[in-house]
Design brief:
single chain, 125 residues, alpha+beta, Conserved hypothetical protein from pyrococcus furiosus pfu- 392566-001, ParB domain, 4-stranded mixed sheet, 18% strand, globular
């Protein structure tokens, strides 16, 4: 790890930010019905925050790693290096895993180090 590179402990807020839940609902609304979205969002709001590794989240989601030059990933990497904490990610268990909110943060964490732990809320689909 290089100097000024954040560790897992100092990178994350303890809880998701309030605006993360509506963002997750907007995304989920594209792939499932409104009743299911409402239930999943309520479950995510109540779920305990747990820790998962960046590389495992990416593998389970089947999503590609966005480049460090992606504008949103780059912003989150810089935010972390500036000592500003990132919001935990919101995940929905299934095959594949759905990153309901936080895809860019997962990619940023992976670029910092693939073994970086990420706090997340994880619920069943």
């Amino acid at each position: 790890m290089t100097i000024n590179q954040p560790t897992g402990a100092d990178l994350w807020l303890p809880e998701p930010e309030d605006h993360d839940f509506p963002a997750a609902a907007d995304y989920l609304d594209l792939i499932m019905g409104a009743e299911r979205v409402e239930r999943i969002i309520a479950d995510l709001q109540r779920a305990p925050t747990q820790i998962k590794m960046a590389k495992d989240i990416l593998r389970a989601s089947g999503l590609p790693l966005l480049g460090a030059d992606n504008v949103h990933v780059k912003h989150d990497i810089q935010k972390a290096r500036d000592g500003k904490r990132l919001s935990p990610v919101l995940l929905v268990r299934g095959t594949p895993l759905i990153i309901a909110d936080g895809y860019h943060r997962v990619c940023a964490a992976y670029h910092l180090t693939e073994d970086l732990v990420i706090p997340c809320r994880l619920v069943d689909r």
